[in-house]
Specification:
Elements: E1 41-43, E2 52-55, E3 59-63, E4 65-72, E5 78-88, E6 91-93, E7 97-102, E8 112-117, E9 124-128, E10 133-139, E11 142-147, E12 162-168, E13 172-180, E14 183-189, E15 193-199, E16 205-211, E17 217-221, E18 226-230, E19 233-239, E20 243-250, E21 256-263, E22 268-273, E23 277-282, E24 295-300, E25 306-308, E26 318-323, E27 327-332, E28 343-347
Antiparallel strand pairs: 1-28, 2-3, 3-4, 4-5, 6-7, 7-8, 8-9, 10-11, 11-12, 12-13, 14-15, 15-16, 16-17, 18-19, 19-20, 20-21, 22-23, 23-24, 24-25, 26-27, 27-28
Length: 348
């Protein structure tokens, strides 16, 4: 077991019910009657950062690229589930397993999809043939991998080998879509479709939607620097001279609705959506990028009202993200100062 992670509390704006009575209520101090305010929680493993994060209702899981960690949300107690020569930059979970994917580095490390039990146990390889994974999602008994398909260097032409791989117990790991031309990212999955963002060398941006039922692909030209799945729509961020416009794109109709704007000059690197809010991580970027103080912003999807979420000041960048019914988590790609703040859980 690793050391217990530091947990720091911020009172949220949630109001408690007040009963007006002639006599004091003997249950006023009973935590069962008045549950405690939600807390902002900080978790850490070895202090090397969190390149990807996943949440269930009781635990947070993350990888620093070399090891996979699990931590209790209630206690902050963390443990190392797996450590290998190369673990993988992305993870995803279902009820029983943590999944990850390694790249084929050409030096003996074979690109593979593997899983380990959420409570710890041996590594089980369940698929091979991955070249360079840049996204991983699990949904309804299936695992989806977004694979660039080739290692690129500065000056290389636009990639033409992007693909979406699909795994389940019946089919093993097989291509769902191959030969995607352009720079792909933002893998999103729901019960009906697998979606990715594609950008070409001409700055054209497309949303690719692939049916899970029959593999049919719809290509829709769309303007968005970052994308996030929000129920039956896609949230888009569009860069402007004063910040970012946040737009809801309806997948069924193709229509767009402006939700609001986020002002500022910091790069907006990640967006995450829940049923009623969008969350954004803004990071400073400079030559000494680790000196940046990232911000986390929440926007109400019905009103567009924006608020900054308070938390302990950290150095580094917030990139990895996940959500459950109570928290939204952001992981620090590198955890320099303080080292015990690798994953930050904000109350929804």
């Amino acid at each position: 077991m690793l050391k217990r992670a530091l947990i720091v509390m911020f009172l949220t704006g949630c109001a408690a019910q007040v009963d007006v009575e002639s006599e004091p209520d003997p249950d006023d101090d009973d935590p069962a009657v008045d549950p405690p305010a939600c807390e902002t929680i900080y978790l850490a493993g070895d202090g090397n950062g969190a390149r990807d994060v996943a949440l269930d209702e009781t635990h947070a899981y993350w990888t620093d690229g070399w090891a996979i960690f699990s931590a209790s949300i209630a206690t902050g107690e963390a443990s190392k589930l797996f450590e290998g020569a190369w673990t993988g930059r992305f993870i995803a979970i279902d009820d029983s397993y943590v999944y990850s994917a390694t790249e084929d580095d050409g030096d003996g490390t074979r690109g593979a999809l593997f899983r380990i039990p959420k409570g710890g146990g041996p590594r089980e390889e369940i698929g091979t043939g991955i070249v360079l994974p840049i996204g991983l999602e699990v949904s309804a008994g299936e695992v989806f991998v977004l694979d660039i398909g080739a290692h690129l260097s500065t000056g290389d032409p636009e990639p033409t080998s992007g693909r979406i791989l699909r795994w389940n117990e019946a089919t093993d790991l097989v291509p769902m879509v191959e030969g995607i031309q352009g720079y792909v990212g933002e893998l999103m999955v729901d019960a009906h479709d697998v979606m990715v963002r594609r950008e070409s060398a001409t700055q054209r941006t497309d949303l690719l939607m692939v049916s899970r039922a029959d593999g049919a692909m719809t290509v829709r030209s769309i303007l968005g620097d970052r994308m996030a799945l929000a129920a039956d729509s896609i949230l888009l961020t569009q860069d402007t001279t004063s910040g970012w416009s946040i737009v809801r794109h309806q997948r069924a109709s193709g229509g767009n609705t402006l939700l609001g704007t986020v002002a500022g000059s910091r790069p907006l690197r990640r967006i995450l959506a829940t049923d009623d809010h969008a969350y954004f991580a803004l990071n400073n970027e400079s030559y000494e990028w680790w000196d940046g103080r990232p911000q986390v912003i929440r926007m109400a999807l019905d009103s567009g009202i924006v608020e900054h979420l308070p938390y302990d000041e950290v150095e580094g960048t917030l990139t990895a993200h996940a959500t459950n019914h109570q928290f939204v988590a952001f992981g620090r790609t590198q955890a320099f100062k303080p080292a015990d703040h690798e994953v930050v859980l904000f109350c929804r």
